[in-house]
Amino acid sequence: MKKLLTLLVLTGTLFAQANNIFTLNPSVNSAGMGNVGIANAEVKNVFHNPAFAGLRESHQEVSYVEWLPNLTDDMGYQSILYTSDLGWSSEIFYFNYGTQVQSDQYGVVLGDFESSSYRISGGYGFGFNDWLVGARLNLYSHNFIDDYSIDMNYGFDIGAYKEFGNTSLGLVLKDVGGETEFLSQKLNLPMSVGVGVGHKFGNFTLASDVKFYEDYNSIGLGGQYDLGIASLKLGYYTESEFDVDYLTFGGGIDAGIVDISLAYYYNTDSFHNETTDSFHNETLMISFGFDL
Known about the structure:
This protein is mainly β. The protein contains two helices and 19 strands. It has helices at residues 7-18, 28-31, and strands at 3-6, 59-66, 76-83, 88-103, 109-128, 131-143, 153-164, 167-177, 179-182, 185-188, 192-201, 204-213, 217-227, 230-239, 244-254, 258-267, 272-273, 278-279, 282-290. Strands 2-3-4-5-6-7-8-11-12-13-14-15-16-19 form a 14-stranded antiparallel beta barrel. The chain is globular, with a radius of gyration of 19 Å. Mean pLDDT is 84; it is low at 1-12 and 271-280.
């Protein structure tokens, strides 16, 4: 879908929200649990907590997401995750805004352009006095229109994790860094402090994450039931300041060398399109993982 954007809208609206793209959860494994992952110790959740690289497991994963496919047909994101048995982690996150149509202030179409944002990350985790601790360096970049360049920005994350019997605790400080500058505008990274707790009841895990941003907070609550090589997940996520809330459903199959994860977001305020027999504000996520 092509969206008609003037440069005023591009710089005033798209850029104003651009850094918030980096708060999107690329972990399909945790998406089905209400985006909960700070205290759920798996290398697949290293986005939520860089300390999980300290689990020292070799894992490779590719994720693909069509973002709000019932509202637009060419917007989405992909990510590639790698963790090593030496404690290192790396990730590439790429968000595609789709094809834009550039027009002047009179609505005259000037041409098409592609817009995108990406993040490249590298981190390390290790064990220390019964804790897992880790840190990650992130490089952020935006590409909105060929005639205007945006300098690459940087930031870092630090995290910690500890188990107390069947209860787990995770702490994380994310996206601490510099400003992104575009024309006369400057934007800070969406820095946040996150706290996660989890508890295992046999094969069932219940967990929750709370994240504190400068202008808003987010809460995620989720559960996972393990069925051997398969798992079922259910969750709820909300950002009350923005009236954002949705249910999440997910599951996965882990066959050892290969695993597949699926997640589905459903906004409780979405509306039904009778013409297409579909609901808006839905998102389907899929990832393929390899343990080599």
